[in-house]
Structures are given as C-alpha cells and as structure tokens.
C-alpha cells in the first residue's frame, strides 16, 4: 500500500532501524523493489533521482509518482515515494507539483547560512501541502574522489542542530564517512560523530552513498539514528549485470521480439538481491 514517506520514517525511528530508499530509474526497478518488500514483509521507499528525468530520459516526474502509487497498491507492505537531490527551489516545486509528497533540497554545496535560507524557504512552501523535506549539511561528496575520507566535508553536530532548528526539515542527510558512487577503499563511518549529531537533533538522519559500506557498520549506524538509507550504485550495477546476462542467454535466439521478455527476466534476478538486502538490514 502507498504510505507517505514521512510516516515510514516515523515507523523506522520507533523501531530504531532504517528503511532502504532504492534509486529506481524505471518501472522494472520500481516493481522489483515493491515485490521484494512484499516478500521480505518490510516497508521500502522507491526513490527518483531527478537526473533520470532531466538527463537520461528514463521516465517523467508525474508518471513516475503515479507509477509508484499504482505499484504500491498491489502489495500489503507500506511503500513510500521520494525524490532525491534537487538543488534549487524551482526544481523542488516542480517535483512536488508532479505528485511527490517527500522531496530533498540539497543546499550542501553552499555555506551554512545560504543552505539554511534555501532549505527553510522550501520547507515553508512544502508544508502548505503536507510535503516532507530532507536537507543536507556537511557535504556527501563523490567516492571516486575519496570524499568519504575528507573530514572537512563531514557534518558537525552544532551545525546540524542549528540547521534543523532553523529550517524545520523532517530529515537530514549527513556526511560521516560516506560518499556517492563506488568506494576506492572500505569506508569507515564515524560512529562517534553520528552519535553526537543524533544527540543534538531529533529528526530522522539519512545515509547517502550506501553501496559498499559493510553491513556491520550499517547496522550500527541504524541503531544510532540513521532511519533512511539510500542505495543506488550497487542496485544499478545489478540491473546492468542482469541485462548483460539476458543478452548473453539470448545471443542465438532468433525471435525478433525477444526484448519483451527482458523486464520479467531482470525482475527475477533483482528481486532475490533486494529481498536479501531488506531482510539483512531492515528490522521493523
Ligand atoms: Zn545523495
């Protein structure tokens, strides 16, 4: 069933666990997540990375929101919808207008006061329509440039406290040794820093750059305030591998419309992987 992400975050906070928010670029990925969540009997969030609309053209904003709500209606577990990194006020308003009730405004490339001003403006407008907002401070950079090891980018507890108090965000993405993309070396989350941020704030904390962080570190982080965990790179890699396997298996298949079997084949490969992730990491 469709559930507002705001409510799923509350459930995760009460259970002292995290919901996994999966980047899904199309129907095949979204359907795989929804049915894996049903099989694992746990909530999940289907998340749009806006560039998949604006750059890669895999979907549209409004049809994506409608697609996720329709898929969610096919299962019993709570399925949320969320839009990942938008960087401007206008972009967030466009996303909200398309039917998203949970959005992210990422002002983390700005100085703290500019980030606060931008995020606060988004929160005030979003609240009018009951939309929940995720912000970010510190800066979650790119794993390819080893940003996860750059403590200058890490979130500071006093800044997090000020940010949450002044903006009114529902959730906050933190930088504690995580980064987007594929890590060069095994990342090490700064758990004492997470504990400080958790003690200084009362919002749901969010961990971006989830691909490649060892499970024991993730589970520790989930017990110390991380209530949402974004998984993209690893999932997209599994998608590619499944398409490649389908292509190999059908190399000698003369059927001119063999492509129509691709989505079901890929979903059959992705669902067991997703189910394993949900069963291992989510404890509602
Ligand atoms: Zn991110």
UniProtKB/TrEMBL annotation:
GO biological process, any: carbohydrate metabolic process
Residues that, per the record, bind Zn(2+) 2: 106, 136
GO function terms (MF aspect): aldehyde-lyase activity; zinc ion binding
InterPro entries noted in UniProt: Aldolase_TIM (IPR013785), Class_II_FBP_aldolase (IPR050246), FBA_II (IPR000771)
This protein's record includes keyword Zinc: yes
Domain of life: Bacteria
Cofactor needs: Zn(2+)
Entry binding sites for Zn(2+) 1: 85, 180, 208
Active site: 84 (proton donor)
Annotated binding of dihydroxyacetone phosphate, by residue: 181, 209-211, 230-233
Protein name as catalogued: Fructose-bisphosphate aldolase, class II
Organism, scientific name: Lactonifactor longoviformis DSM 17459
Keyword line: Metal-binding, Zinc
Pfam families to which the protein is assigned, alphabetical: F_bP_aldolase (PF01116)
Cofactor details (free text): Binds 2 Zn(2+) ions per subunit. One is catalytic and the other provides a structural contribution.
